[in-house]
Amino acid sequence: MTDLLFVDTNVLIYSLDPGDPAKRAKAAALIKAGVQRRALVTSPQTLTESYRILTQKRQVMPVEAAREYLSALAPTCTAPLDPDTIVLAWQIEDRANYSWWDCLMLAAALRAGCRFFASEDLSDGHELVGMRIVNPFGNAIEAFFPS
Fold it and tell me: Fewest CB atoms within 10 A around its CB: which of 45, 66, 72, 91?
């Protein structure tokens, strides 16, 4: 595993949501650090879920602004979403107590070679085939990018 960092949809949403300034600042800083280190990884699922939440569910921003933001993140969309990812997600689902959509994201992150998976919704500190789940709001950025 490399020091690649996969970010869950909630991290992308918090980086723009004015409802929680503290989480917004932490999420934005983590995304910025990941981009600067060329270590940030997203998946098609992450970007499409973010688009729906930003423009429809929470209506955090207009459609064009959401498209611009997510287009800027397109180079980070290196985690696969293909039949092999689905098979791995089934294996994770059989072993872990996570939702199907979380298993699919975890599988994509593993297939992309990520060492860390940033999510508020999963078990902080849980290891999955060498990848560590870390809550970005309970840990410092250094937890993702150790020296």
Answer: 72
With tokens 């917004």, the residue in question is 24
Mean pLDDT by 10 residues, the chain (147 residues): 86 91 94 94 96 91 95 96 97 94 97 96 89 89 72
Domains of the chain, start order? 5-142 (3.40.50.1010)
The closest alpha carbon to 74, from 132, 128, 35, 26, belongs to: 35
What's the distance, CA 122 to chain centroid? 11
pTM of the shown model: 0.92
